[in-house]
Every structure is written in C-alpha cells, then in structure tokens.
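Class prep. Protein, please:
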Amino acid sequence: MLSHLLALIGIVVPVPFAEIVGPAVLYAVKREEMPYVREQGRESINFQITIAILYLVAIPLTLPIFLFVGVAFLLALKLLNLVLIIVATAKTSTGEPFRYPFSLKFVG
C-alpha cells in the first residue's frame, strides 16, 4: 500500500519525477524481504514511469498553437494519476493486488 501512496509525493511536491522516487526507494529497500512489496512496488514504479513519459509528451502540446489540447491532456493525466493511486492504495490496503489498467513494463 505504501508504494502506491508514496507516489502522491509527485502530486504534492512540484519536482520532476517525484512520483517515481518514493516507490523506487521503498522497492529498493524492501523488495528482497517482502514479495508483496516487490510486486506492488514494481507496479507503482512502472505506472509512474509511464505517466512521466506521457507528461513529457504533453509538455510540447502546451505551446500556444496547441495550448488547449496540451493543458487539457496534462490536467487529465494529473486527475487519472490521482484517482488510480487512490484506488490502488485502497485495494492494496486490504491485501488485494492491484494492476494499473495501462502501464509499460520497465522494472521487471
């Protein structure tokens, strides 16, 4: 649960890629001791990396010619990220594994 919850740092702290740092640290420290943390940490990291890539794609869309599309895309990504983090945190708090609906697999 904590690996998903730590991803909220990126929503609160305006530092690039902050969403990845919290889950990555927890994953690095606890992955050998706790298989559930390894599995859910990997899910959280992979999803946050996917979201970060989508942010990088959306930033050029905020140029004046595409301003509305870019800003709408960034806001939609922020909202989607927040909602999915909350859902993941709620599900994993009961011990149920959570899989994000779309996520590229970077950490295996």
Q: What stands out?
A: The chain has one domain: 2-93. Residues 2-93 form one domain. The CA atoms of residues 62 and 72 lie 9 Å apart.
